[in-house]
Amino acid sequence: MSTKLIYFAWVRERIGKPEEDVELPAGIETVADLLRWLKSRGEEYENALQYPDVIRVAINQEHVGHREKIAGAREIALFPPMTGG
Amino acid sequence: MASTIVPAIRVQREDFDVAAEIAALTKGRADIGAVVTFSGLCRDEQGALTALELEHYPGMAEAEIGRIAAEAIERWPLQGLTVIHRHGKIAPGENIVLVVAASAHRQAAFEAADFLMDYLKSRAPFWKKEHRADGSEGGWVEAKEADDKAADRWKTPGR
Predict the structure, then answer these.
(1) Cα–Cα distance measured from residue B89 to residue B9, given in angstroms and rounded to the nearest whole number
(2) Domain extents for chain B?
(3) How do strand B88-90 and strand B8-12 relate by DSSP bridges?
(4) In terms of residue numbers, what domain contains A50?
């Protein structure tokens, strides 16, 4: 099953694309696993995800923590801390 | 508890009219005793900025504001609630965000509006990028720790 990843703000700029569909390899169970795997995919990902602790994540358009399981996620979004309002 | 109100939530590129939004909330009502509005505007930071570009997560922006509004309605006896957040390029002096909270008495309206703004700032998926007057590449506005602290004030045990 492929998962849609969506990026916003400087995460989007550094990765160089707004979204992509990926096939997650076996063993990627949590948000933290996903961030670690993505970071290893190339320089642009390394750049965007250099400090994984600051990256905020939403699964199916709801905020989640880094320990959240990603099984069944259709859409996972990665973004910096929000600055609306 | 009496019937639950349905908040009006809009995420839009266009400007809004504060007076018209208050009128829409209170028209034909005789039970509302207090309306608190908060408008957030774009600043130019002493002439350094020509605009802010607001990026948002379509779908989640509406959903998250809806979740925050639902929590406000659960916590305070509100009789009306409108939340509007703009996106796109916004010039200094223009509106960015509006909260209108109506209640029988002022305390609930004040507190609900305050809560909504604290939560919008730290949880609604919007990001501001600066357009600088000197033509240099503008950066992304950094989240402030003070805003997270402000949101933490409203945490109740068990949530």
Answers:
(1) 20
(2) 8-141
(3) unpaired
(4) 2-79
pLDDT tens digits, residue range A11-32? 999 999 999 999 999 999 999 9
For residue A10, which residues of chain B lie inside 8 Å, CB to CB?
140
Which of A9, A61, A81 is the closest to B60 by Cβ? Answer: A61
Tally Cβ neighbours within 10 Å of residue A76: 22
pTM of the model as a whole:
0.94
Supply B132's token pair: 């600088």
ipTM, 2 decimals?
0.96
pLDDT digits 0-9 by tens, B98-146: 999 999 999 999 999 999 999 999 999 999 999 999 988 889 999 988 8
Residues from chain A contacting residue B96 (CB–CB below 8 Å):
84-85
Domain at B8-141, CATH class: alpha beta
Number of domains in chain A: 1
**A85 occurs within a structural domain:** no
Query: Is A46 inside a domain boundary?
Result: yes
Closest residue by Cα to residue B80 from B106, B50, B101: B101
